[in-house]
Amino acid sequence: MKPTVITVLALAALVSAAPAPLVARTPPNIPSTSEAQTQLAGLRVAAQGPQTGYSRDLFPHWNTVSGACNTRETVLKRDGTSVVTDSACASVSGRWYSPFDGATWSAASDVDIDHMVPLSNAWK
Hints:
Layout: H1 5-17, H2 33-41, E1 64-66, E2 69-70, H3 71-79, E3 81-85, E4 91-97, E5 104-105, H4 119-123
Antiparallel strand pairs: 1-2, 3-4, 4-5
């Protein structure tokens, strides 16, 4: 059976639409082992205190970083692969890999971006 132009074009479209392979990305500003150990040694562990005066409202949620891009969108673009954004800077496609559990997502709405230390704990 001879391939037709339509078959060839369809195959070319499928190949070009295949998702790009995920590339492991290193987060920025990772300290050296010795620097991390020095920083950890300098941490003071205190008894848990009260939450007096704490309010989540004291910490703005997603600040604008540049143009229409807020903190969340900036992090999604930084940490994702092949991220495409719309005119409002929302991620409409891309892939995100979690080095914590090996999970991969292809919808930005499935990606949680949060603090490594909860704000209320840091307040105490």
